[in-house]
Design goal:
It contains 3 helices and 9 strands. By secondary structure, the chain is α+β, with helices and mostly antiparallel strands. A 3-stranded antiparallel beta sheet has the order 3-4-5, with no helix packed on it. It has a two-stranded parallel sheet with strand order 1-2. It has a two-stranded antiparallel sheet with strand order 6-9. β3 and β4 (60-65) form a beta hairpin. The longest helix is centred in the N-terminal third of the chain and has 13 residues, at 28-40.
Amino acid sequence: MNWDRLFARLGSEVTMIVRSRVLAKEDPEAAAVVRESLEADGVRILDHVSVQRATDAQGASRIHLVDGTFVEADTVLLAPGRTPRACQRRSLQRRSRPQPTHQHHDPEGHVHLSGAGRRRTDRNRE
């Protein structure tokens, strides 16, 4: 939602197409405050709408909605959301274990870390 606000403040006409509602996983009252703020910045919000298809003709895009309406745009910024793939995540958790971090101080008082940020997988065990 940062890009839509930015482009709207820079003078672009911005339309957000949202399948459910803005910030659907958040508290409805908090989401309403964010929505009002976006609209105050000039962002047009179409919620509870699904996209059927998108077409491109002569440099302009047309987003066809399931309800039969459409939105025309010069540029389309797609933000499909984040849907976790639990199976992949579990698989990665089993294969990847953080390597311990060792910390020591040099004589000047600087902290040195070894192994920080590295990960060990089953394929490259020591």
